[in-house]
Amino acid sequence: MRTKKEREKYASPEVAGGSSEKYPYGLRIHLEKEDLKKLGLGVEGFDIGDNVILQCVAKIDSLSISMSESNKSESVSLQITKVNMEKKGPSHSLRETIKSLKSA
Predict the structure, then answer these.
(1) DSSP codes, the chain
(2) What is the pLDDT of residues 40-50, one digit of tens each?
(3) Which one-letter DSSP state was computed for residue 41?
(4) For the chain, how many structural domains are there in total?
(5) Domain assignment of residue 93, given as a range
(6) pTM over the 0.85 mark
(7) Using the 8-state DSSP alphabet, how is residue 40 labeled?
(8) CB neighbours of residue 45 within 10 Å
(9) Intervals of the chain under pLDDT 50
């Protein structure tokens, strides 16, 4: 059984994902060539450092609630099924984009 100090060490950001990252690992999306192809996307027209508008349709794969004496955690797992990515702001509403993604 771990001591309180050991539990704190393993729960620290340095161990969980590194303190140099602005956002946690779970917020990063990485798409390989085959993934991009399935979603009808490509890297053309984008550059490193660009900010993009990302709109997607995702299916909830799992929901989880875990409790211990000192902690309660909740999580959701999403499977992205359709994506729209634009370099500039969307030319139409989110509702219109979702309708077009559903019909594609």
Answers:
(1) ---HHHHHHHHSHHHHT-TT-SS-GGG-----HHHHHHTT--STT--TT---EEEEEEEEEEEEEEE-SS-EEEEEEEEEEEEEEESS--SS-HHHHHHHHHH-
(2) 888 888 888 88
(3) -
(4) 1
(5) 4-103
(6) no
(7) T
(8) 8
(9) 12-17
